[in-house]
Amino acid sequence: MLEITSANNPRLKMARKLQRRRAREQSGLCLLEGARLVADAWRAGVTLESVFIARSFAAGLEQTELLAALALGGTPLYLVEEALLAGISDTVTPQGIVAVAPIPPAIPEIASGLVLVLDGIADPGNAGTLLRSAVGAGAGLVIFGPEAVDAYSPKVLRAGVGAHFRIAIATCSAWAEVETLLGNERQLFVADARGALGYDGVDWSLPSALIIGNEAHGPSQAAASAAIPIAIPMQGGVESLNAAVAGSVILFEAARQRLLIGAGDGTALEVCDPSRD
Amino acid sequence: MLEITSANNPRLKMARKLQRRRAREQSGLCLLEGARLVADAWRAGVTLESVFIARSFAAGLEQTELLAALALGGTPLYLVEEALLAGISDTVTPQGIVAVAPIPPAIPEIASGLVLVLDGIADPGNAGTLLRSAVGAGAGLVIFGPEAVDAYSPKVLRAGVGAHFRIAIATCSAWAEVETLLGNERQLFVADARGALGYDGVDWSLPSALIIGNEAHGPSQAAASAAIPIAIPMQGGVESLNAAVAGSVILFEAARQRLLIGAGDGTALEVCDPSRD
User: Fold this and answer.
1) Domains in chain A with CATH codes
2) Which strand (E) or helix (H) includes residue B247?
3) Which residue of B has its CA nearest to A135?
4) Where does residue B48 fall: left (phi above 0), alpha (psi -120 to 50 degrees), or beta otherwise?
5) Tens-digit pLDDT profile for residues B30-83
């Protein structure tokens, strides 16, 4: 394991730059922080560019196993001072390990099954939580819309807890790109507390997309005009739910319906889609 | 409106102490920060002990209306310097208004309908989010178990966005107290990713309680032995959901079932409960 002792080390400088969205987009690389995220990426078959490790890191059995696996796989490992690692860390309490990983290529073809669209979700925690829920609910694609937070920002990666390596993610810089990905054969819904249609009144066994708007301002004009507003009935004078919670409640209602009819994956779904016959 | 210019002002000192749980429990008071929470409490009929306002606060129409309503209602208002208000504020960007409010008395009788038990939930954001979901899903009571975060900590209040004034909240210092509140006529479920029973396989029209365990360690021994584990089926290799998301997904499945059979409130529920005939 090589040792890095200077903040001017080129690899470390490059990693530091990846805290900014522009640098991530230009390089196609992102930062993974913490043993859990690094292990998740490694298990998912991601080829890590480099892994920076603090002296204090390799204490437990699990950590040692991770390092051994990375080393055996030929991943470049670098031992760095705590203070240097803190410079590429996004957390208040750095977790002693940060990896540089390639951002998976955005898939160009239209996804089958359920699609989640983050239309202007601004909070990284919400975006990561929704990604995790989308994977758990069996969605096939998550689209980050023009105004949404960067899917590969350190905070979104952390909140996603490995979801980034388990689902196709597309980032669109214009709504027209979102529409292309959604295709014409899909029913579009947007979560809206004022919607007249209940989220459980939808037939989620059909190819569908769920759009979640901005936390403060709701869905964009483009999304609102393209999709049917659906609401979660609220009791007790509550006006609305947190965006990540509302999105997750709807995603798992979709999953529940699809599992009931055995449409839990894309293959089974095609059986229910007459347009494919 | 009286003016406070010294950090040693007794009212301000008392408010500062309320940032600690012990002081809240001894005084029966808590801090509400931000215009939204203060307005929510005021609308819910809470008698505010005192309201501290920064000079920069009263800018918009909404803020002016809130202040006018509080003043007309006889609430003691105090103008304070920004720096002094920051001393009783929990947020990085203080919102210019903090109120001292009484903690509602814990209801002693057994609640009807759905009960949520936060068994060791440690993250204030999760606790507040779950409270908000419990209200929206029509639950009748939220119990904070022995190891849970304080329901009236500033962060839980903020994440609850007014939910604290719309549902009965009980804090139990021992599991035996939780059991007393739950009574004997209620089916108990605990969210557990390894549970064999699906959360949608439960008949939520019956009097029920949902227990959510600690984020890292899961449910307590007492909770695990008292309740049936239920799981949300997961796809895509996701092991579990965030505790607040998982709890909310289950709460709204319960609400969905109860609304379908018209058991959305306690009164209607009794019709379905043969033990009450």
Assistant:
1) 2-102 (3.30.1330.30), 115-276 (3.40.1280.10)
2) helix B243-260
3) B236
4) beta
5) 999 988 899 989 888 899 999 999 887 766 777 888 888 898 889 999 999 888
Q: In what order do the strands lie in the sheet with B168-171?
A: B168-171, B141-144, B115-118, B208-212, B187-191, B228-231, B197-198
Pairing of strands B208-212, B115-118: parallel
- Predicted confidence (pLDDT) per residue in A242-277, tens digit: 999 999 999 999 999 998 887 544 433 332 333 333
CB of A143 within 8 A of CB of A111? no
Are A232 and B135 inside 8 Å of each other by CB?
no
CA B94 – CA B32 distance, rounded (Å): 12
Residues forming beta bridges with residue A53, ordered by sequence position: A79, A97
Q: Establish whether this prediction's ipTM goes over 0.90.
A: no
Q: How far apart are the first and last CA of chain A?
A: 56
Query: Tokens 């009794």 correspond to what residue?
Result: B270
CB contact under 8 A, A255 and B248: no
**Which is it for the CA torsion B159, B162, B167, B169, positive or negative?**
positive
pTM over 0.90: no
| A·B CB contacts under 8 A | 88
Residue B159's nearest CA partner among A241, A38, A154 is A241
Does B241 contact A200 at a Cβ distance shorter than 8 Å? no
- What is the pLDDT, as a whole number, of residue B272? 30
Residue of B nearest to A244 (CA): B245
Longest CA span, chain B: 62
